[in-house]
Amino acid sequence: HDSKALSACLRRLADTLKSAGMDFGSDAVGACWEFVTLPLLALLDSVGPAREGQVRKSEVKAVDADAKVKELEADVERRGGDETGGLKAEAMRSNHALESLLECLLVLSTHAIPRSFGAVLPLLHSLTPLLGISSPSDALSEEANALTFRLLRQLLSLPVFDDNS
User: Fold this and answer.
1) Which of 39, 84, 96, 104 is buried most deeply by CB count within 10 Å?
2) Rounded Cα gap, residues 105 and 47, in angstroms
3) Helix (H) / strand (E) containing 13
4) Are 108 and 17 in contact (CB under 8 A)?
5) What is the pLDDT of residues 90-140, one digit of tens each?
6) DSSP at 141
7) Residues 7-65: pLDDT tens digits?
8) How many CB atoms sit inside 10 A of residue 94's CB?
């Protein structure tokens, strides 16, 4: 899991979306809303699973390697042998990667106008769990929290929420 590479990719995507919005107009980029948001939603949905039980470096203690292997084997067996419960992008453990993802989504929602309320709903649904991450070991950075609220505010101000639409 290379969070630095993912962050760099997401920053490039944000720059591209911003340029496309300026060059082609927000309606044109909005026509691609669902196509662009789908992989970003998959990453956003993986934040919680990737951070479950995350241990900070300051909390790491000496670990018996054999005990750790047995614990991992038991976890795989308990899950039925494979990870079918959803995507778990390990890079999303990183606050830096999460911040880049939120910035990319913020740029998208600023420079693209989705065509319907239904197009925005999955993003709102995926953002909601971020508000509940409060465990000290899983907690979001202050910047990630601020970006989450800025993105929610931006999404709720989109024209698809106007009474006339």
Assistant:
1) 104
2) 15
3) helix 3-24
4) yes
5) 888 899 999 999 999 999 999 888 888 899 999 999 999 888 876 666 678
6) P
7) 999 999 999 999 988 888 888 888 888 889 999 999 999 988 888 765 444 343 444 55
8) 22
